[in-house]
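Late entry, written up from scratch paper. The run itself happened at the end of the previous shift, but nothing got recorded in the book at the time, so transcribing now.
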Amino acid sequence: MHTDSFPGALPARRHLPAAGAGTPVLDVVIPVHNEEKDLQPCVRRLHEHLARTFPYAFRITIADNASTDATPRLATRLAERLDEVRSVRLEQKGRGRALHTVWSASDAPVLAYMDVDLSTDLNALLPLVAPLISGHSDLAIGSRLSRGSRVVRGAKREFLSRSYNLILRGSLQARFSDAQCGFKAIRRDVARVLLPLVEDTGWFFDTELLVLAERAGLRIHEVPVDWVDDPDSRVHILRTAAEDLKGVWRVGRALATGALPLDRLARPFGDDPRDRTLEDVPRGLARQLAGFCTVGVLSTLFYLLLYTTFRSFTGSQPANALALLVSALANTAANRRLTFRVRGRRGVVRHQAQGLVVFAIGLVLTSGSLAALNTATHEPAHSTELAVLVVANLAATILRFLLFRAWVFPERDHFAAGHDPRDSR
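Output as recorded:
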């Protein structure tokens, strides 16, 4: 990651006044590489839409990435015929490089970009940039994965897109829903602070910018979009996915080692209130619940694997007891590190001992429920036993989470053991 220079403090959010004569409020960049077929219809359609619906002055910038077909000539012709269109030529490929170059040089207070295929319906453009103009948000993204979106695309792309965004949530703790939709906007003053920190020059540029913005406490506005897949897309899916995963690893490592100066990006106001420590306000409850459930599922699978292994050379009761003990230890360790974000070795033995007590309480609750059922009914039906176990295990799970949160891993212990307060966001 680039850490040799510090770009400066983040600006305060303010409503953007109408720009002076000749200065556009919005600069929409269209990065292209060998797009002679789609360029003219795209630019003309976008120009017509902005001229008809956008209430401020605008500019459309065609960023040509080393095209070898007729794209440069067509871009120049469009710039000559339409006053609000200009063309910029780059001699190297890379969507991220094109956006970095044009955004860094633009004088418009709001910068946006969209793909040349216009897969995203243009009616979402004004809702995309309006929060930036008003000062409500710092960045805005179109999302194909939010509830209000209407998307038409193949199952393969849908699976890859959702998988990638799940990876971002799990590895980089991203909160935004769609990193790769080619429909984004950013305030120029924010871009000039963040762009020097973004290293990628290709398809991962979007993701890296969003992750750094989120970690810096910036507000990202999401707009549900209508999106139709382009069947003629030239994106090499597997190669792009591999590069994206390399980018996730690089950014994650830089964030983990503190190689980025995000802690020095101080705002005059508007920091994320979730970063503040407030009395009597539970922190990170939704994330902890999700982590607890995930660990619970994995622990169950681990228990079944252990039981199967131990059962091959011992009886069912010893195999069950040993598998439960080992999986309980693993469950406590995983919840300590992943769910409650407790770092370091301090308190490990105490946490494991308390975890075994919590496990024993849950075991007594489930076993006691069965014993009570057998006392009340001499030969209960199998379906009745299952119903009792389901209810008892649900109660034991809720009790286990509450005990973990309030007794085993209380909030005050997180910081004593090396917990980063930003992890609880």
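The chain has a mean pLDDT of 82.
(Scratch paper discarded after transcription.)
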